[in-house]
What does this fold into?
Amino acid sequence: MQRRRDFLIGSAVSCAGFAPQRGAAAADIAIGVLYPMSGPGAQSGIDARRAFEVALEIVNGDHDLDLSAARGGGLQGVGGAKIRLVFADHQGDPQKGRAEAERLITQEKVVAVLGAYYSSVAATASALCERYGVPFVCADTSSPNLTQRNLKYLFRPSADDIMFSKTMFDFLDTMRKSRKKIDSVALFYEDTIYGVDSSNVQRRLAAERGYKVAADVKYKSNSPSLTAEVQLLKNADADVLLPTCYTNDAILLTKTMGELGFKPKAIIAQAAGFSEKAVFDAVGDKLQGLISRASFSLDLAAKRPSVGIVNEMFKKRADRDLNDNTARQFTAMLVLADALNRAGSTDGAKLRAALAATDIPGTRTIMPWKKVVFDAGGQNPHATPVLIQYVGTKFVTVFPESAAVAPAIWPMHS
It folds into this structure.
């Protein structure tokens, strides 16, 4: 409860800090931010708030950064208007998310909604936004199904789990070519749209690439025990474990694996919980060598100064580095601000058209992407994923070769 109170107070302060001077209130543009602020996913909501605050600082201020919407102070295409964020707590509940999205639109008068960490919440909230003609920007949710529903007002700048999983299997193929023995994988995924969609993609790719699925284990999210499930994984003795789970489940899975003495040759995770600082604070000693898919690589700071600058801004607020989730959240806010600038209007249809026409070079983002454009389903097909490996106390990029700063450690416990 205290965390939620702190979150709400912090949100109110951040919005107040970006309020315009007297007489300019009409220039404010309200953007809805739909995240878990209480419940099991509360920490992800707290981190998201900080990422959006940094993006807001850049958009509303005037910064000498080679990032979209960074220069000029406010939205110059909309008369120098400032953005004001309105936070809403979906508590990890899809129906609560839908109701909160409707409240943001009808009562708070937001012109767009950003969200939502949970793919299941993004599914209901984006359908509601579609009905009202209000753009929904998927900042960090990765279920492929979200952009396959013929929605016109949904946009996702970052990769989906098809793109992420292809990168994982490209990596496995590369390791095979280097004479590593990799014959089988084990799927471990939660019983939500995020977990099920991820497993469907990985199951198909395993068949196409010639890997045996030695275990296919679906579990109930936020389960109090994973002993039976981990025993199944251990008995299967697959070469690679592919987990898809959020923070609490990632911690419980790792602890249970330790208790049962289960040590696969490699773990390649669908990020989410396995990109969260809370997981590595709790069980990082057991995750040395873990590989995770990612949209973001802090290593890019060596080539692109804006990455390091934005990371330092984030660290001042969050006392931690940007990760896969917070980097995507930051980027989504800048993509939306760029579209508002080009739309020159807060009208839903005009903003939707501007988003659809987005064409931002990857060099003007903090991401290792080719560019940001959207296909007919609202997906950015150029959000090139990377794989990062946890070594010591930080992640390093290990794949693809063009982005890697170190070779992958294989097996992970060597």
Summary: DSSP finds twelve helices and 14 strands in the chain. The longest helix spans residues 324-343. The chain has two domains: 2-159+301-372, 161-294+386-399.
